[in-house]
Write a structure and sequence with these properties.
Elements (H helix, E strand, L loop, with lengths): L11 E3 L5 E3 H4 L3 E6 L6 H19 L2 E7 L3 H10 L6 E3 L4 H5 L13 E5 L5 E6 L5 H18 L13
Parallel strand pairs: 3-4, 4-5
Antiparallel strand pairs: 1-2, 3-6, 6-7
Helix pairs in contact: 2-5
């Protein structure tokens, strides 16, 4: 796995929103990339719906969210639709992004449950791994983002005030 202080690896992948996404285009705001083992499993549904429900709060803190698993693109699209997800998700069936981020399990076709928080310049500021305490990922992310925003004194790009979205 990658560590706090390291530069996040560049990736380019097709999302469930029908476009190609790269880390480079997300920089300038915080990026939360969460890797989960398998679509449509109870823990992954819980984790994804928690990120979905908190997405407006994460956007207000200046962050974009990306969900990744080693499911194929079609399965990930079905999962994103079933969970009514508004942020990009990546079906990483070839495990390219998962390998770059050090979360691909060596003998299973599943990712480790790991969440990275990347700052505006592409440096990893948080790494959270809670295989069974799926709720902790979002809690840890929100806590870290609030701390980073407070340190900077402003949320920056992506910040939305009030009900404007």
């Amino acid at each position: 796995m990658l560590r706090v202080g390291e530069r996040a690896p560049e990736f380019t992948a097709r999302t469930t929103q029908g476009r190609t996404l790269s880390l480079a285009e997300l920089l300038g705001r915080y990026v939360v990339i969460y890797f989960f083992p398998k679509a449509f499993t109870p823990g992954c549904i819980k984790e994804t719906t928690r990120f979905r429900d908190a997405y407006p709060d994460l956007k207000r803190l200046g962050a974009e969210v990306v969900g990744v698993s080693v499911d194929d693109h079609e399965t990930q699209c079905e999962f994103a639709t079933a969970q009514n997800v508004g942020f990009p998700m990546i079906g990483d069936g070839e495990r390219e992004v998962s390998r770059l981020y050090g979360v691909a399990r060596p003998f299973l076709r599943l990712d480790k449950r790991v969440t990275y928080v990347i700052d505006r310049e592409g440096i990893i500021r948080g790494v959270f791994q809670h295989e069974f305490q799926v709720s902790r990922h979002l809690d840890d992310v929100l806590h870290l983002l609030e701390k980073l925003v407070k340190e900077e004194g402003k949320p920056g790009p992506g910040y939305l005030t009030g009900a404007a979205q």
